[in-house]
Amino acid sequence: MGIKMPGKLILQPPSIIVKMRSIKYFLSCYMFRYVEYPVGASVASYIKKCWVLDNSNNPNPLTDKQVLPNGCFNIAFISGEGIAITGAKVNAILGKGGYLCGQLTSSINIHLYGNTKIFLVQFYPWSPLLFMKDPLYETADSFIPIALTSHSLNLNFDIADEKQIMNYFNSGAFIGNETVIKPAMNVCQLIRRSKGNIAISELADQTGWSNRYLETVIKSALGLSPKEYAGIIRIRSLIDRWQIASGIRFSNLALEEGFYDQAHFIKTFKTMLNVSPGKFRKENYILTNSGISY
């Protein structure tokens, strides 16, 4: 690699090349804006938060960041050039528009193009049943154009205008028949309260359902099995604790969270995050600013 001058090529030392790349990466991160917005009390049982990945003032892409599963759905409104997403179970390029983002089962890498902003509304796992007209069986690890789905949302707003999006969802206009969410909501709340450390047989006992019916209810609402959802909550609960802990090893926290088999814990962690607990670095991930991530 080098700089062309009239009649000659001046080679750059490797150290200069590395330094230039580091400066470019620093500037990309500096010009990137990550924001979380709370929602109003009237919709807080359905929407966890709104969050923004804003690279609109940066001509360079934001790379080398990952997003983790957290047991929630998102609707993403993309303005600008778009985003490339890669992972063990997904490989997609999303352009301008609105997308239903299904439940993640493993971490994804994002390549946020320059001059792009993504506003996301993050829903608790039971909430899409309020406005989606079809079951969500096949939505895990998927990014589906919202225009291709059957829903009751009124999306007549500027998808680049944060205020308009916030106003619509804070109004509660998306809330349909609340009775349809109760079965899935009750099961998910049991799993959340136990931090994912609950047997499927215990869930069936507490709901009075058969294991098969329990599986059907949760799979149609979340696109995940109860076991898959519980596993996500279990790992995210552990990461939440690790974020606020000082110098505590994942292995110690895992024991406290009921992972008595370290080999099983490491395998579960690595399957979901694509990295071992010892190599997890929070600066590589887009993590919630505070509180419970799920």
Automatic annotation (TrEMBL):
Transmembrane segments: none annotated. It comes from the Bacteria. Coiled coil: none annotated. It holds the Pfam family HTH_18. Residues 185-283 form the HTH araC/xylS-type domain. InterPro entries: AraC_XylS_family_regulators (IPR050204), DUF6597 (IPR046532), Homeodomain-like_sf (IPR009057), HTH_AraC (IPR018060). GO terms for molecular function: DNA-binding transcription factor activity; sequence-specific DNA binding. Keywords: DNA-binding, Transcription, Transcription regulation. PANTHER family: HTH-TYPE TRANSCRIPTIONAL ACTIVATOR RHAS, HTH-TYPE TRANSCRIPTIONAL ACTIVATOR RHAS-RELATED. This is AraC family transcriptional regulator. It comes from Chitinophaga silvatica. The lineage of its organism: Bacteria, Pseudomonadati, Bacteroidota, Chitinophagia, Chitinophagales.
